[in-house]
Design a protein that fits this description.
The complex is a heterodimer of chains A (about 160) and B (about 290). Chain A has 2 domains: about 5-80, Roll (Ubiquitin-like (UB roll)); about 90-160, [2Fe-2S]-binding domain (DNA polymerase, domain 1, Orthogonal Bundle), CATH 1.10.150. Chain A has a 5-stranded mixed β-sheet with strand order 2-1-5-3-4, sandwiched between helices. In chain A, about 45% of the residues are buried. Chain A has 5 helices and 5 strands. In chain A, about 35% of the residues lie in helices and about 15% in strands. Chain A has helices spanning about 25-30, 90-95, 105-120, 125-130, 140-160; strands at about 5-10, 10-20, 50-55, 55-60, 75. With about 160 residues, chain A is an alpha+beta fold. Chain B has 3 domains: about 5-55, Uridine Diphospho-n-acetylenolpyruvylglucosamine Reductase, domain 2 (2-Layer Sandwich); about 65-175, Uridine Diphospho-n-acetylenolpyruvylglucosamine Reductase, domain 3 (2-Layer Sandwich); about 180-285, Enolase-like, domain 1. In chain B, about 35% of the residues lie in helices and about 25% in strands. In chain B, the strands form 4 sheets. Chain B has a 5-stranded antiparallel β-sheet. In chain B, α10 runs antiparallel to α11 and α11 (about 240-250) packs antiparallel against α12. The chains are: A alpha+beta (about 160), B alpha+beta (about 290). The interface between A and B is medium-sized, with 32 and 32 residues.
């Protein structure tokens, strides 16, 4: 049994047929749509590397079936900015050296985007709590927290 | 690390979902938020022939004020409970506990019906259902029935549902209380609890008029500690009350050693949390 999946990813609509129901959203994004910015780490919802936004909420793409995304609006790391024009959070990650090997970075950015939208992030503890579902084995998190702190401050400046 | 093949159905009504489960001859599995089931599928620890996805059923994600009770539809997601002003005002213990439920992306997907059905002994929602004495409404081929939370959780990861029954609603009684607290320690914020306690108190003229106590992470199911409640109500309140309460709580549990913590460490944590929780609850101006 295969199914048809129609999704909007980063503003573009994709109609894909012959999708097996067991295909994970993470594999669908990478293998069927060629969007390899979404990284696959643990494939059981522990590392957070495959985090994407589904209808505005951060979701682990390895814990969702592609067929469940039918009709949904998805944003992946490719949808945040471009090498020439980084978005605010990406620019802060570069500024604060918030990455080393880069494997966890797409997931960190997508979680960061969701955190910035939903939470006040008044303290570093709030940021660390929010990032608790994303693992990084290089940075020790310090600079990731600093990047998000700075993005949160810019968000507040913009709003006031 | 990829699920085995299954047939996928996405019914638009509860009746159709139950019919699909019946038709699967015991080989079906219900999919709600998928935050516990998908890992099991990915590891092929679960290999259902049919996956019945409830997410296409409209009208199952409400949070409704029924006066002395709050009703929550089975598909309400953890994030909705976490941010609900109604829950913050009527079920403050739940509200405080929700940010401990896993991590942001999991709270965005996970559902109350799914968490209760999964019945993890160290998960917040089964503990909250036990604490509040929630009534869990389930529907199956022979209709609807209501199960008290105290009877719902049978063992670790085991509930009392028949294979073709689905959780559809959970009703939480609003507690009359003057003070409350929720305390939890996990290895990492958002992970499953090593030990946790919820406490609610109602003051009388001299001592407490009523108390409610539930714990998790220290048994195969979450547990309401009625003995601790009774002793707390019988106690004269003074500076030693939190210490005496902690002793009683710990005397009522017998956790096992496991990979994450020794039994002694869990008891040590629970005693600390019990003391802290009661102090917080008693200090609250109701």
């Amino acid at each position: 049994m295969t199914m048809h999946v129609s999704v909007t990813v980063n503003g573009e609509t994709y109609d894909v047929s012959d999708v097996e129901p067991r295909m994970l959203l993470s594999d669908f994004l990478r293998d069927r749509l060629g969007l390899t910015g979404t990284h696959v780490g643990c494939e059981h919802g522990v590392c957070g590397a495959c985090t994407v936004l589904v209808n505005g909420d951060s979701v682990r793409a390895c814990l969702m079936l592609a067929v469940q995304a039918n009709g949904a609006e998805i944003v992946t790391v490719e949808g945040l900015g471009s090498p020439d024009e980084l978005n605010v959070l990406q620019a802060e990650f570069r500024e604060h050296h918030g990455l080393q090997c880069g494997f966890c970075t797409p997931g960190m950015l997508m979680t960061g985007e969701d955190l910035l939208r939903k939470y006040p992030l008044a303290t570093d503890d709030d940021i660390r709590e929010g990032l608790s579902g994303n693992l990084c084995r290089c940075t020790g998190y310090q600079n990731i927290v600093a990047a998000i702190r700075s993005a949160a401050a810019k968000r507040t400046e913009k709003a006031s | 690390m990829k699920p085995a093949q299954f047939e996928y159905v996405s019914p638009s009504t509860i009746d159709a979902a139950i019919a699909a489960l019946v038709a699967s001859n015991g080989e079906g599995k219900v999919l709600a938020g998928g935050q516990s089931l998908l890992p099991l599928l990915n590891f092929r620890m679960a290999r259902p022939a049919v996956l019945v996805d409830l997410n296409g059923i409209e009208g199952l994600s409400y949070i409704e004020d029924r006066g002395d009770r709050i009703a929550i539809g089975a598909l309400a997601r953890h994030r909705e409970l976490e941010h609900s002003p109604l829950i913050a005002s009527k079920l403050p213990v739940m509200s405080a506990a929700m940010r401990h439920v896993a991590h942001l992306a999991i709270r965005n997907r996970g559902t109350i019906g799914g968490s209760l059905s999964h019945a993890d002994p160290a998960a917040e929602l089964p503990m909250l259902a036990t604490f509040y004495e929630a009534e869990i409404s389930v529907q199956g081929p022979s209709g609807r029935r209501t199960i008290a939370a105290g009877n719902f959780f049978v063992d670790a990861l085991t509930n009392c549902l028949e294979p073709e029954e689905i959780v559809v609603e959970v009703e939480f009684p609003v507690l009359k209380q003057d003070g409350w607290a929720f305390e939890e320690v996990a290895r990492r914020f958002g992970d499953f609890a090593l030990a946790s306690i919820a406490v609610s108190v109602r003051r009388g003229p001299a001592s407490l008029e009523a108390a409610r106590v539930a714990v998790m992470g220290v048994a195969d199911t979450p547990r309401r500690l009625r003995e601790a409640e009774d002793e707390l109500v019988a106690m004269a309140l003074d500076d030693t009350t939190p210490d005496r309460f902690a002793e009683i709580v710990v005397s009522l549990v017998a956790p096992n050693d496991d990979l994450h913590a020794s039994a002694d460490y869990r008891k040590h944590l629970l005693a600390q949390l019990a003391r802290r929780a009661l102090r917080t609850a008693l200090a609250m101006k109701g």
